[in-house]
Amino acid sequence: MKKGHLIRNIVIAIIVIGVLGAVMGKKGTEGESSNDKSSPKTETVSNEQAVETEAPTEAQIEYTAYTTDEMIDDLEANAMNATDKYKGKYIQVTGKLSNIDAQGSYISLSKEANDFTLLSVQCFIKTDEQKEAIKTMNKGDTITLKGKCTDVGEILGYTLNIDSIG
């Protein structure tokens, strides 16, 4: 019986040591994160500087020119290839203005031809200057935009963040 008690005591000791080790390890991790919180890294950057470092200026970006007809044809032919070709890229797109959002959040460009398709290039307006420029336009106008294609979907088409109009 003494041997059975000894094995049981060893197993209990191993479990207790394991639990204590886990608790102490967790406290050590929490202590490290609290140290990070109590001693923040000080780096002063103005908002203007932060914007400049986050996004390159238009002069530094090379835009590849496409038409909405070409983009939508590529998407209809093979959505996976269209994603590789356009998503994350800076593009200049020319197409027919098909929708102007009443709140001034976005516009949509469609194919020049009168083909019925739900696919379009949905372009998000980023500045007041862009809103003012769009206020002078009408559905059906052919316009050219520069921006970054942020998403490609086989149902609704493309998403573009507008950098400039014209």
Write a structural description.
This protein is of the alpha/beta class and 166 residues long. The protein has helices spanning 2-38, 47-54, 68-77, 79-86, 128-135; strands at residues 64-67, 90-100, 106-110, 120-124, 142-153, 157-165. The model is unreliable at 26-53 (pLDDT under 50).
Features:
5 helices, elongated, 6 strands, alpha/beta, five-stranded mixed beta barrel, 166 residues
**Cα distance spanning the termini:** 91 Å
Q: Order of strands across the widest beta sheet?
A: 2-3-4-6-5
One letter per element, helices H and strands E, the order comes to HHEHHEEEHEE
User: What percent of residues adopt helix (DSSP H or I)?
Assistant: 40-55%
Low-confidence stretches: 26-53
Total DSSP E strands: 6
Averaged pLDDT: 79
Please give the largest β-sheet. Answer: 5 strands, mixed, barrel
What fraction of residues sit in β-strands? 25-35%
The value of Rg in angstroms is 28 Å
Silhouette: elongated
Judged by helices, strands and strand pairing, the structural class is alpha/beta
Q: Count of helices?
A: 5
Architecture blueprint of SSEs:
Layout: H1 2-38, H2 47-54, E1 64-67, H3 68-77, H4 79-86, E2 90-100, E3 106-110, E4 120-124, H5 128-135, E5 142-153, E6 157-165
Parallel strand pairs: 1-2, 4-6
Antiparallel strand pairs: 2-3, 2-5, 3-4, 5-6
Helix pairs in contact: 3-4
